[in-house]
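#struct-queue
[09:14] JT: dropping the first one here, sequence first, then the structure tokens:
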Amino acid sequence: MKDSIIDAAFTKKNEEESVEQPEKPEVSEENKAKLGDVVTFQRDGKDLKGVVTSDKLENSVVVDMTIMEDFKEKDLDFEKTVVRHGKYTIQERAEESE
């Protein structure tokens, strides 16, 4: 009886874990922004735009939003922010240096 209770507990835990953690679609390398790319994204209902200043993070990029003409009017708390891959759209690719 003890073994069946333990087996049932493990079975239930495995079922819960498979339901709670759906697989996240991974963003392909070609769809990830690189240093100097211009991206757009939404934050708190606002459409924002910025240039990627760091692409070294595994799941995100650091974006400088001061390139927006209306940056001051948007009353944002910070000049830079972190945006997760898949949450931005690449508007313009940076020129690759040789």
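[09:21] JT: and here's the second one, same format:
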Amino acid sequence: MTFGPHGDPFGGAPFGQFPGGQQPYGGPPIVTAPPPPAEMNTLATLSLIFAFVFAPAGAVLGHLGLAQIKRTGQRGRDRALIGIVLSYVFIVAAVAALVVWAVRPAPSDTTAEPAISGTTPPATTSSSTAPPPPLVTRAQLPNLPLSLDEVKRLMPNLDETYTATDTSDELNGSPGVATVPENCRPALFAGASEVYTNSAGMATFSRSVTSPNVDTLLKSGGVEERVMLYPNAAAAQAQADALEKLWQGCVGALTQTLDYGRGTVRYQVDPVSRAPGDQSIVMLKATMIEGPRGLDGIRNVRAIAAKSNVLIDLVVFSQNPGSSAEDITAAILARIPG
């Protein structure tokens, strides 16, 4: 991540550092080496990053970073504060977007009742065609994502520090975030508000699996499982097709600027592909090639799939994600009737 020198709240002298210049006279002059610069707090940096990835985690990391800075004297207090503020801004923006989304009239998928005839219809033989499975309801959405233990079974590198965080009817906002090519934030993050706010979506549920331990999180990664509810199967599939088309325009070098240009993260995005085990799962893989210390080389794997009136929107980030994104998506698909 790069930061400009002028007006940069993250630059300047370390907190508590004695100012440069001549020392007060107190006897013969003593030449001493300048104190080493204080180390930047990792939690503060991660708070700023996760504010744009998963705002609740960004807020938690920011508070943990402030406590650590107070104890160790590391640099990064301003960065942690900005991460906390942005996290709460994004949470509020997401809730506001969902309020607008919720009050929109839902598309009607009712069918006209057949006219009642005065004559008795002829008897028909039973058909072998089974009735279509019932559509998924809003109340059923929380039952679709895998539990913490189920995710751990598919990602055995996740240890006991990992927890699951559930959110209902919240999308991931993007104030202050821009990408080159444009509109490619959904290629990196699940539940992007710019994709779903004006869609036919009726409800959403998300389960994020992360660890508060920074070293563990950088090594083992995390998951966001998101399911979106639509009025019918056609609407869910149309949204999946639209996302796949958007992804096609994000292949290659992708630059993301954070906090209105204060920080930059660069990715190399692989071509859009299909999961080997299930061709209905669309995959997009990206590698971070320039970012905060400890995050270079992180793999970001996106997966989407539509079944019945549900769209699955998933992201896994890890140094070694393997087939976890495909495996988790396939397990969620198996829970959807149809």
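[09:30] RK: nice, looked through the second one.
[09:31] RK: The chain has a mean pLDDT of 80.
[09:31] JT: good to know. The helical segments are 42-53, 55-72, 77-103, 148-154, 193-196, 214-220, 233-248, 324-335.
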